[in-house]
Design brief:
4 helices, 140 residues, mainly alpha, flat
Length: 140
Amino acid sequence: MSPVVPPRPDKARQQSVSSGNKKSPIRPSRPVRPGRLSRPPVTPVVLCGTILVVATVVLFLARGEDSGQHLVAAVLGMFGTVLVLGWFRQSLNIKRSGGSFSDWSGPWEATRYMWLLVLAGWIIGASNLYLAVYEYVRPR
């Protein structure tokens, strides 16, 4: 019987493991100056807040009218906020990979605020969806 010889790993894999160089597909959009800390992105937070305000205004001011307005507000509240959350998380990960990142000061980190905005967007979006369906099936 001959002894079992384990297979040799290929040379490229062995070099990448030994050198410790790991290439990341996510890179900072611009280099951060040495004395400056990068902050969480503000634009997605403002956009999510704007979507939330629009959906809330439609919820309270468009009662008894066409259900199309409620349907648009429901889609914005439920799916628009989730898309903006994805954009926020991607931008945040890019900034964190830059090496010098400082989160917002306050009781919670930036992602917690975004999750609360998205949760509020889902609640208001579901309310708008309820009113859209209610207005559609209501006898005239």
